[in-house]
Structure formats: structure tokens, C-alpha cells
Amino acid sequence: MYLRELVESATTVWGRSGGQAVRKYRCTTGSRKGRVVAKPSTCTAPVNITKSKRFKQTKRKKAAPIAIKSKRTKSFNPGSKRIQRLNKPKRKTSPRKRVRSPKRKRT
């Protein structure tokens, strides 16, 4: 696999590892499209079906507690707040001003 393929398959974002903000990658292609991973090579790695199946079962069972905990973390944890700020676009794009054409005189 070439470095070019790795770079094209992921964009860089900030994430948490423990309490620290670290550089992570959001997959833009592959079976993990949209997922945030630690290494860009993970985006195109083959999927382990057994682990995938087990994780889906666990997620179904624990959906409500996970949602409550993650909402609380995202609202109050200073590390999460910092990462939200880091992942926002640097410059907001302002909407273009419409240039009106001069009024025509009816004849």
C-alpha cells in the first residue's frame, strides 16, 4: 500500500485518548467510511466479522446507557469541549452578497 492511498482514504481530525487531545483520522473511503480511527491504514483493513457481530449485539443492548453517558461527557467534560472547538472549521464562510442588477426603465 502506498502513502498516497492512505492520505486519500482519510482526513485528519482531533480526538480524545484518555484525557488528552490527539490527532486521529476520519475515513473517507472503505468499509469504515465516516468512522474516526487512530491510523489511516485501518480504513482499508479487512473487517473481522466475529468482532463486528459481537459489537453490534453489545451496542443494541447498551444503546440507552451509552447515549446518556456520551451526552453527559460531551456537555460537561472540558476535554470534549476542547476537541469540539478544535474540530470546527477555522474560518466561517460568509454567504455571498447578491449583486442586484440596475433597475431597467420600461419604455
Task: Tell me what you see in this structure.
The protein is α+β, with helices and mostly antiparallel strands. It has a domain of about 70 residues. About 40% of the residues lie in helices and about 15% in strands. The protein contains four helices and three strands. It starts with a helix and ends in a 20-residue tail after the last helix. The mean pLDDT is about 85.
Instruction: Give helix and strand order, one letter per element, not per position.
Output: HEEEHHH
Backbone shape: elongated
In what range is the share of β-strand residues? Answer: 15-25%
Please summarize the sheet with the most strands. 3 strands, antiparallel
Q: Note poorly predicted spans.
A: none
Helix content: 40-55%
Overall average residue pLDDT? 87
Tally of individual helices: 4
Strands, total number: 3
Span of the ends, CA to CA: 70 Å
What structural category characterises the helix and strand content? alpha+beta
**Rg of Cα set:** 22 Å
Strand ordering within the main sheet: 1-2-3
Short description:
The chain has four helices and three strands. It has helices at 3-8, 49-61, 63-76, 78-87; strands spanning 10-17, 20-27, 36-37.
Topology diagram in text:
Layout (H helix, E strand, L loop, with lengths): L2 H6 L1 E8 L2 E8 L8 E2 L11 H13 L1 H14 L1 H10 L20
Antiparallel strand pairs: 1-2, 2-3
